[in-house]
Task: structure prediction
Amino acid sequence: MEKYTNRTAILLYLNLLIGLIHVLHEFEILDFVPDTYYFIIPISFLLTLIAWNGLLILDKNK
Result:
């Protein structure tokens, strides 16, 4: 159970959630983020992807 709740896995889950919000917004299924603030979604997706990749590399080097 530990491997599903470590920091790398939590960042991956967060990244998948942000990606899901992005896809649902693009297909206009879900629209709870105003268009003026929508630029935050792709930027946060990229930042969590970079952070997840960094943590994955750090965990492999241990």
